[in-house]
Amino acid sequence: MSRKTNAIRLIEQAGVDYEVRSYELSIEDFSAAAVAERIRMDAAAVFKTLVATGSGNGPCFAIVAGDAELDMKALARHAGERKMEMVPVRDLERLTGYRRGGVTALGARKALPVFLDRTAMTHATIGVSAGTKGLQVLLAPQDYVTLTAASVVELQRR
């Protein structure tokens, strides 16, 4: 069962090798760690896509491992901001075209800056949301960087 999302269409158009894994999640827990368990991957290789904003340059994507936490000060430094805060859930779809639990930088409505934690590059394959709850796309981290024009930086703390 593979539903075509904008993210999957973008990957296919680029001719990138990928795999889609679907999963069922409870309403209470759709954390990256829970997703990793359900798709049989290490949480360090399943990346969550967060959307944050600053007052100067606006919103951006921050992608960190499922077993880590986003370091907001590091993100602010890389984004050229004094301070960053998470974008309210109610604004996610308007900014990205995706709903909470399915947000991805792949095929997003607006081309926002993308910051990917450097640990992604230590994995042969990473998992990221395919654009909807219940669907993950697995691809090489370098392909993800190319498709999203991501800056690879230090962004997380464990």
Features:
single chain; globular; 10 strands; alpha+beta
Number of helical stretches of at least 4 residues: 5
Question: Based on DSSP secondary structure assignment, what is the total number of beta strands?
Answer: 10
As a whole number of angstroms, the C-alpha radius of gyration is 14 Å
* Strand fraction: 25-35%
> What is the ordering of alpha helices and beta strands?
HEHEEEHEHEEEHEE
User: Average pLDDT, to the nearest integer?
Assistant: 92
Percent helix, as a range, is 25-40%
Shape category = globular
- Assign the structural class, choosing from mainly alpha, mainly beta, alpha/beta, alpha+beta, or little secondary structure: alpha+beta
Q: Which spans have pLDDT < 50 for at least 5 consecutive residues? A: none
Explain what you see.
The structure is a single chain. This protein is of the alpha+beta class. It has 5 helices and 10 strands. Strands 5-2-3-6-9 form a 5-stranded mixed beta sheet. It has a 3-stranded antiparallel beta sheet with strand order 1-8-7. It has a two-stranded antiparallel sheet with strand order 4-10.
